[in-house]
Write a structure and sequence with these properties.
By secondary structure, the protein is mainly β. The protein has a domain of 112 residues. The protein contains three helices and 22 strands. The protein has a 22-stranded antiparallel barrel.
Length: 440
């Protein structure tokens, strides 16, 4: 446990701000500087989406969300932080044939207290509902975490608690986990870091997941940077779909190279497989998919400036899974304008090859300052080709046009308004959406 030195008691009446008649030995405890500096910050927000679809059946969908995300620092005069993040969601569907429905759901995303973890206070602790501080990839946790930061910047820690369910309710108490981790800095500038974490879980009392997570972060003071993280699962004789071995269930990696001050290129790759778990996920998968299902993707992207106001970007990617493969790409051009009403224009063409649908499309957008904020408009045009479909709907031309405004209202309020119209073959719908947010 970390203990901070308590500041010395001062008896200077002017320093305290006392009146001359205030006795020196007052029974009321004076407030410390730490207590005076305690404060709350955060945001509260309200969003709404209204969608009316007039294609075939007249249908109306309404989505509403209200949330509160707040951080209280130094509330108890000890330098700690209380973090709360929760929201309430409601949706309803009305169909002309009477097949409507509605539901609502409250959800607690974060509620925890944390303390320390800085250069001045190397000990760190947290308890409540939170994501682990150094390895959020381990998942949301209802429990406690403790760690230590060495003078060289290395960090070591462990956590214990329950993993909430991955459904919308996020109930807890079924899956117990314990984990330990470490991150090591390989240079004095803290730009090269490697780390690893071990996690063991039990679901309803039965041994479940044995996971090793590794991570690399390299951001030198130069043109190169790299990041990679990988999940390695260990299986035993009790697993049905997997052999008694190890499997790389997820890998995310990227390398970026700046080419001077006007261009850059990036290469990224990912591999995703399905671990066999007793703990249920968002969906239950068949054994065949658990055993051989995977998705691989490689993406190469780059950008360059064409003068002081123009920028060109290019992206190509390729993917494949256990049954098929595809790819895609995009080339885009954007320009900053010096007009008082129109300050940007953006045009892009794209191609996507999917498992069931190929898309050839065009995007265009523009915007500028107006009425204390910014207006924006975007148009998407796409030719959708249905693979293996021989009917009249084998090719569909579909489009979407949206118009929006983003700006501040007063000092602390932010408002975003968006209206969208989707039209074309087999598509006729319009929507209205807003986001109202206040920071404090």
């Amino acid at each position: 446990m970390c203990i901070r030195d308590r500041p010395p008691i001062r008896w200077d009446s002017k320093e305290r701000g006392w009146d001359e008649d205030t006795p020196l030995l007052s029974t009321a405890r004076p407030r410390s500087r730490a207590e005076r500096d305690s404060k709350w910050s955060g945001r509260t927000y309200l969003t709404g989406d209204f969608i009316r679809d007039r294609q075939d059946t007249d249908r109306e969908d309404t989505f509403t969300r209200i949330g509160f995300d707040a951080r209280g620092t130094n509330l108890f005069g000890k330098g700690g932080t209380v973090h709360f993040d929760g929201e309430f969601n409601a949706r309803s569907t009305d169909v002309s044939d009477g097949q409507g429905e509605s539901e609502s759901l409250g959800r607690l995303d974060r509620l925890f207290y944390s303390h320390g973890g800085s250069r001045e206070e190397p000990c760190y602790m947290a308890f409540g509902r939170f994501l682990p501080s150094q390895f959020p990839e381990l998942g949301l946790l209802d429990g406690a975490e403790a760690s230590w930061r060495s003078t060289a910047g290395h960090r070591y820690g462990a956590s214990f608690g329950y993993l909430p369910s991955q459904d919308r309710e996020r109930t807890t108490g079924d899956t117990l986990q314990i984990s330990s981790w470490a991150t090591v800095l390989l240079d004095a500038d803290e730009r090269f870091e490697v780390g690893g974490a071990l996690q063991k879980t039990w679901h309803e009392g039965e041994s479940d997941r044995d996971l090793l997570l590794a991570r690399l972060r390299w951001t030198p003071d130069g043109p190169w940077s790299a990041y990679a993280t990988g999940w390695l699962d260990f299986y035993g004789s009790g697993d049905v779909a997997k052999d008694s071995s190890t499997e790389l269930t997820q890998l995310l990696a990227s390398v970026t190279r700046r080419l001077g001050h006007r261009a850059g290129v990036s290469l990224s790759a990912s591999i995703v497989r399905y671990p066999e778990l007793l703990r249920g996920g968002l969906q239950q998968l068949p054994l065949e998919t658990l055993a051989s299902g995977e998705n691989r993707r490689v993406t190469l992207s780059g950008w360059t400036r064409l003068g002081d106001t123009q920028r060109l970007r290019v992206r190509v990617d390729r993917w494949n899974d256990q049954e098929s493969g595809g790819g895609g790409g995009e080339i885009g051009w954007e320009r900053q304008l010096r007009s008082s009403k129109l300050d940007r224009v953006d045009v892009a063409g794209f191609l996507s090859e999917g498992r069931f649908t190929d898309v050839l499309g065009l995007r265009a957008g523009t915007g500028g300052p107006v009425a204390g904020g910014r207006w924006r408009t975007n148009l998407d045009l796409g030719l959708y080709s249905q693979i293996g479909f021989s009917g009249e709907q084998d090719e569909l031309i579909q489009s979407a046009l949206n118009l929006g405004w983003d700006g501040t209202i007063g000092r602390d309020w932010f408002l975003s308004l968006t209206t969208t119209y989707r039209f074309g073959d087999e598509q006729d719908a319009h929507s209205l959406a807003f986001l109202l947010q206040r920071r404090f």
